[in-house]
């Protein structure tokens, strides 16, 4: 069944049910893109509200991490290698783009940072390693390879987050706020679908692992609504079994477990989340930039202007921020949710205008 027919079926049985508003969260930033780009968000009945969760790694990177990166630029003979999305994310006072010199390079993978270190062996190259369990395996594999084979002038400043703890935090705070969950497909490919079964088993909320095509998303939403409205029993489902197995990618998990240890992590706009960070363990400590340069991460109070914290927690939609589309645009972003291509505000701003339906 194609996307349009699925949407028609959803609209039909919801009209019959005459239910109160239904709130479904998609955790992954790529899902937010797929839902908006395909038009699904704007085709659903008004009573179905799709909320974006904390699945944008740039958006949840703490201000102190950016401050540490900026501090490193001032160190003698230091080069930073970073993904492009990180350049405009502000720390406590400024961003890398404002401080950018010839010592800051945009890269597309950890391997690019290795190449950069080989070209500049008289410098210390520091790779800003940001992401979730999706990017953690390739970063871990790179750290292991550099540890064993060099180059000796490459270090890593990590801000790697784990998905399960923050999902638990959201569901524990207000179980009634979220009626259904679209689980992060990329992370599930690494960890396995079974890593997220707890959402349904423990919190009694229907949840589904989805792919990223329009039909994948429509099928997932349809399945969740069937359960939320009582048409089918509560269940957990993996609709992305072409890429996600029950147990996940064992080799990727092996790299994560070998190189990193689980610690408490600081999430921008959320604060400290227990056991939510992957940090370089003692064996590979000499490649940790915080160890060599004695850096430490701290929490900052959330800006009273930007409402990214409420948005990534599913408490608000982007258009409910008074700055959205006015003082805050993709051309002049005021917060990380408008900066990153996976940020909910940037996605709503880009595709909401195309569909002429910002108020959805």
UniProtKB/TrEMBL annotation:
GO MF entry, a single one: 4 iron, 4 sulfur cluster binding
Keyword Metal-binding: yes
InterPro entries: Hyd_form_HypD, HypD_1, HypD_2_sf
UniProt keywords, alphabetically: Iron, Metal-binding
Name of one Pfam family that matches: HypD
GO biological process, one term: protein maturation
Family of the protein in this entry: Belongs to the HypD family.
Protein name: Hydrogenase formation protein HypD
Species whose genome carries this gene: Clostridium aminobutyricum
Lineage, highest ranks first: Bacteria, Bacillati, Bacillota, Clostridia, Eubacteriales
Gene: hypD
């Amino acid at each position: 069944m194609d996307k349009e027919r699925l949407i028609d079926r959803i609209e039909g049985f919801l009209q019959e049910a005459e239910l109160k508003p239904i709130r479904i969260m998609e955790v992954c930033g790529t899902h937010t893109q797929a839902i908006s780009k395909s038009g699904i968000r704007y085709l659903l009945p008004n009573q179905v509200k799709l909320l974006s969760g904390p699945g944008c790694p740039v958006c949840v990177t703490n201000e102190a991490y950016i401050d540490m990166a900026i501090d490193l630029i001032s160190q003698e003979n230091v080069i930073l290698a970073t993904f492009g999305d990180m350049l405009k994310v502000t720390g406590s006072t400024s961003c890398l783009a404002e401080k950018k010199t010839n010592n800051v390079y945009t890269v597309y993978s950890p391997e690019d940072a290795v190449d950069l270190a080989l070209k500049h062996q008289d410098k210390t190259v520091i790779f800003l390693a940001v992401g979730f369990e999706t990017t953690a395996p390739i970063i871990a594999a790179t750290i292991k390879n550099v540890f064993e084979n060099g180059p000796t002038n490459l270090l890593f400043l990590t801000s790697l987050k784990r998905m399960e703890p923050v999902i638990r935090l959201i569901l524990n705070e207000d179980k009634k706020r979220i009626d259904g969950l679209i689980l992060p497909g990329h992370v599930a490919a690494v960890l396995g679908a079974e890593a997220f079964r707890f959402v349904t088993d423990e919190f009694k909320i229907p949840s589904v692992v989805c792919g990223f095509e329009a039909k994948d998303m429509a099928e997932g939403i349809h399945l969740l609504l069937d359960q939320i409205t009582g048409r089918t029993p509560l269940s957990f489902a993996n609709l992305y079994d072409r890429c996600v197995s029950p147990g996940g990618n064992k080799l990727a998990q092996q790299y994560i477990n070998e190189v990193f240890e689980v610690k408490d992590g600081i999430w921008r706009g959320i604060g400290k989340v227990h056991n939510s960070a992957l940090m370089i363990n003692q064996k590979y400590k000499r490649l940790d930039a915080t160890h060599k340069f004695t850096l430490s991460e701290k929490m900052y109070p959330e800006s009273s202007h930007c409402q990214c914290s409420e948005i990534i927690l599913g408490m608000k939609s982007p258009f409910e921020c008074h700055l959205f589309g006015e003082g805050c645009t993709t051309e002049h972003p005021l917060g990380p949710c408008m900066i990153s291509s996976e940020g909910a505000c940037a996605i709503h701003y880009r595709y909401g205008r195309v569909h002429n339906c910002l108020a959805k």
